[in-house]
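Blackboard transcription, Thursday session:
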Amino acid sequence: MKALIRITLKNGVLDPQGKAIEGAVRGLGITGIGDVRQGKFIEVQLTETDQSKAKQIVEQMCKDLLANTVIENYAYDLVP
Amino acid sequence: MIKASVIVFPGSNCDRDVKVAIERITGYAPNMIWHGDASVPSSDLIVLPGGFSYGDYLRCGAMAAHSPIMKDVIAKAKAGTPVLGICNGFQVLCESGLLPGVLMRNRSLKFICKDVFLRVERDDTFFSRCYRKGEVIKVPIAHAEGNYFADTETLDRLEGEGRVALRYCDETGTVSDAASPNGAQRNIAGITDPTGRILGMMPHPERLYEAALGGTDGRRIFESAVISLTADAA
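(Written on the board underneath:)
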């Protein structure tokens, strides 16, 4: 099993990198886009096979290290 | 005698600067403590230096905050040992939960290395007693992630408890958005814990501690600590 973890900035937290990406995309002449927000994607292989225990492990990882919950949200999927 | 300990993380690069500054100012060489050690020797002062601990992987200071040594730094800080976190050290203090908030990417997205003006907000705390309240000092910053962020409730609490130590300002001491090099909320350049004995600051006082370096405005952070420690002992 592996965990696919997405870490994103909370709403209202300024994202200058997202803004810069947005500007660069527009600079390419690509239209039809709105706000851009950037974040992190982390993939963790899990040796734990029990679904609920795996969830606990991922929750703890996210809270204690992977995300800074002052400014970031996290979400994840457990996939085979 | 002042027993200071400087914590050295892989990627610290201001550790020796602050060591020399402390040695010249106090007359005593600090211990240099490797991040993988389990404990800090009994110290009068612990310094978390500037640099790029763990290559700034994940978030600045995030990995260092979980270094083996930090368990003991946190325990000693909570027991009253004064801690000074400079630049990356401030980021580590925030990531370890000893100080609230987080240092985000500068709003310009650029690494900024220049002298900035700071307004001293307190002159009665462990690290500030040699300054005058409202005094404008010049100290360099050198960071890409110094944009202080916390939610409004936390900011109001910091202000209410007098825990904003330093603010970015212009030469006249006026605090304005234009005077903020990095977009920090409320121009915050440094904050303390409720006791004032834990100080996190983005500017580098160890880079301007004697005239040969171009200024001495950073020196009194360390002199304040020496006087405070002498007062503690009395």
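Lecturer's comment: The helical segments of chain A are 16-27, 51-66.
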